[in-house]
Amino acid sequence: MSTSLLMFIVFIAITLGITYWASRRTKTTADFYAAGRQITGFQNGWAVAGDYMSAASFLGIAGLIAFFGYDGFLYSVGWLVAYLTVLLLVAEPLRNTGKFTMADVLAFRLRHKSVRTVAALSTLTVSLFYMIAQMVGAGPLVNLLIPGITFEVAIIGVGIIMLIYVIFGGMLATTWVQIIKAVLLMCGAILLTLFWRRFNTTGMVVGMLTGLTASLVLIVLSPAVMGVDPPTATVRQIIQAAPIFPLENPGIVSVPLGFIAAIVGSLLTRDERAELTYSELNVRSNTRLGAEV
Amino acid sequence: MAQQAGAMRVPTSGEILSDEEMRRIVEWQAIEANTEFQALVHAKRRFIIPATIFFIVYYFALPILVGYAPSLMDTNVIGNINLAYLFALSQFFMAWILMYLYVRRARTWDEMAAQIVTTLRGGKE
Fold this sequence. Notes:
The complex is a heterodimer of chains A (293) and B (125).
Chain A: H1 3-25, H2 29-34, H3 41-52, H4 55-68, H5 70-96, H6 102-109, H7 112-145, H8 151-169, H9 171-195, H10 201-221, H11 251-268, H12 272-287
Helix pairs in contact in A: 1-8, 3-9, 4-5, 5-9, 5-12, 6-7, 6-9, 7-8, 7-9, 7-10, 9-10, 9-11, 10-11
Chain B: H1 2-7, H2 19-33, H3 35-68, H4 70-73, E1 76-78, E2 81-82, H5 83-124
Antiparallel strand pairs in B: 1-2
Helix pairs in contact in B: 3-5
């Protein structure tokens, strides 16, 4: 047994042990989502740093810099600066309202059913694409460590271990991963519900669906899916035609588009209940009043 | 309080708000209109809005300058290290400094918020 395989097994054993320990202590919703509000700011900082210094940074950024030089370095700067958005605009109001997830905050003054549906839809879509990339990355790695097993088995194995962490462990790391990734689609809606009285359910649904549809359509039309391969190519693009959308990542177009749709949707309709309950959200998000009664 | 409730329009969306809901809404609106609360919101905005605009501009200046002024960013500053790398590195310091300033101000905001909650609790119960 090689040293790297041994280290891999020890790591899996320790993290599963922590998951088991966490699952025994998790009893309430606050336990599951916020580790029972027992985590100090300092501990949380370490957890976030741990999340940051995960596979994506060590393997992804290192690889990007190796392949693309300076362009790869830009990614790491982008990730760091993105935290400022969370720090300045989202973290404090979100915690003060005493809500756990993005969907909870949105459902606070908008109509529950449509908000939950759209929030779940976009979270699942974002996670799906994110997970595909993670799994495809994890597959060959495990394959390297344990050469005996095939690529497919490696991917399924990694998937099962991830599921165990999330379902039984709940809490911190998972919440953070979810928040950071969901920011792509939901940050716009969150900022609008926290800071704009006129924002309503129609705006939220229209905005998030527009953002979601735009990203999906643009990905299909982008070089990620479309392209003309030479006949000798072993890996072929799904659609053999010149890409219609030039960028591989649709965010720069889909995120502003979602924002605009949310604003237009809100301005075209009125929801006085949402406007009237804004006062409560405004006070609570600023003062923490009523958060933990 | 009662006057304020009477002044509010009946929702046009067709939804009828119950008396209990109306009472809650009026209560929260009163806190929102409170001078101390307004002072807290303004204090926060005075920092958060400029800080957000600043970090967005500072961050996007990096890819834009690298993309559109490559020869400028290619200027060597220390040995082989060019302006682009130093600018990218400075983003880390920018983030840390902004975080430090935010945390320092957030302490006074927490005190202001706690003061408001204490006053309200004392006034009501």
